[in-house]
Amino acid sequence: MIQVVDVYKSFGQLQVLKGVNFQVAPREVVCVIGPSGSGKSTLLRCINQLEKTNSGQVYIDGEELTHPKTDINKIRQQVGMVFQLFNLFPHKTVLENITMAPIKIKGIAKTDADKIAMELLKKVGLTDKAHVFPGKLSGGQKQRVAIARALAMQPKVMLFDEPTSALDPEMVGEVLAVMKNLALEGMTMVVVTHEMGFAREVGDRVVFMDEGIIVEEGSPQDIFDNPQNPRTQAFLSKVL
Amino acid sequence: MPWVEVFGMGILDNIISQNGYQVVLRNLGYFLGGAGYTIFITALSLAIGMVLGLFAGLGKLSANKIIYMLSTAYIDFFRGTPLFVQIFLLYFGILPVLYDNDPVSSAIIVLGLNSGAYIGEIVRAGIQAVDNGQMEAARSLGMNQRQAMTYVILPQAFKIVIPPMINEFIALLKDSSLVSAITVPELMHRGDLVFANTYEATWVFGAIAVIYFVITKTISVIGDNVERRLATD
Ligand SMILES: Nc1ncnc2c1ncn2[C@@H]1O[C@H](COP(=O)(O)OP(=O)(O)OP(=O)(O)O)[C@@H](O)[C@H]1O
Ligand SMILES: [Mg+2]
User: Fold this and answer.
1) CA distance B204 to B21
2) Across chain A, how many H-helices and E-strands are there?
3) What domains appear along chain B, each with residue ranges and CATH number?
């Protein structure tokens, strides 16, 4: 489903990704963990080309995103992204946040888009907030709306960049529950997270990144209970 | 201290001069007609300025080097030289080459070009004030640059831009008094003419100042209302 081949990325002098190879199978849930600054967000943003890669290829469903002829907007419609700080559109209601892209990009009729959006809001437990502006929502509610907004484009893959890091502790659970349901429905997901419990329970595979490379990957059991690389061991001993 | 008395008497004499009062009354309709011109010219210039400013502001954010340079040159020139000079340069110099120019249309063109430069900076700042994450969210949904601008960035920038736009509107209205120098029959020019015939400086220009003030105050009150109405979400 996703293939990242030998990707390098620098910001000026700073090398952030130093040859990353990474695959995600259909219906797989991959959790990416690692210390701050290790390049997790950058990797995720390279997958939908919000950051241009310096070299290497990214494929989604066999289509090369890094090819200059590729219509990147077309592919991004199939790749949902959820941000740490939600990035909801503050000038639009919750419902309009969700229907904007389907209406404006896909040309779906408003009544149909509204119906789909209401179903998605039901899924994330927020039907009563449809006509509220994002400013009136709690962090956990905002993030659930952001997930619904991404799902409205019916993506094949969902990318999550620390979706619960900006939340108060009591709101983390409601967002993780929505994500877990999504995983159970068979959505292909890449989740950058500090929630080790979620990675262990929901993840099919855990990827540990440090200093711009993938140091170790494997099943949650392998990584959490029996890490091989000393850097993985050192990181886990700090966070677990 | 006899000179204080003399000086004081002079001012007082002038201020309460019966004649000055009558000059203003007699010319009030004439002045208000000039104010009409002032508002008309300012409104049209502002409309031109908003269109130019939108393009110039977007141009300053463009990745295209040529568009960026053209926008920057335009903004720099009109912000970096006196409006008074621009009025003379275009009215006597450039516009007569292009068409058979009259004072009113020339004034609208110069004021429009001038305010376009200031509005361009306002637009640029307004767009840059919208959080970067908004563009990323829009693009991540599959919108192209133009769609993201139209549906996500510009509507938010619009709100941010309202207070400085009202300031610009007021500044433009006051600056339009400079086109009196090229005989546009607007408020200041009519004041000038009446003054030249009567020498009632305090009464005439006092009345002109009051009329300008009433107009600018009205604009700022309306602006505050618009701002308050849009702030609710
Ligand atoms: N747009 C940018 N310009 C310059 N440097 C950047 C940019 N984005 C990221 N970096 C740098 O790249 C490095 C990796 O950043 P990245 O956000 O990928 O780390 P991360 O693993 O997601 O960390 P965190 O857990 O703190 O989110 C950091 O040193 C960061 O400062
Ligand atoms: Mg990050």
Assistant:
1) 9
2) 9, 10
3) 27-232 (1.10.3720.10)
Chain A contact for B149 (CB, 8 A cutoff):
no
Distance CA A78, CA A33 (A): 24
pTM: 0.85
Ligand nearest to the CA of A13: 1
The rounded distance, in Å, linking the Cα atoms of A216 and A206 is 8
Task: Give the model confidence (pLDDT) of B119-152 as tens digits.
Answer: 999 999 999 999 999 999 999 999 999 999 999 9
Sheet holding A205-210, edge to edge: A79-82, A157-161, A188-192, A29-33, A205-210, A213-218
B227–A contact, CB cutoff 8 A: no
* Distance, C-alpha A18 to centroid of its chain: 21
Residue A124: band (very low, low, confident or very high) from pLDDT cuts 50, 70, 90:
very high
Euclidean distance between CA atoms A139 and A156, whole angstroms: 26
pLDDT tens for each residue of A32-65: 999 999 999 999 999 999 999 999 999 999 999 9
- N-to-C CA span, chain B: 65
Q: How far apart are CA B233 and CA B227, in angstroms?
A: 12
Over range B157-177, report the average pLDDT: 95
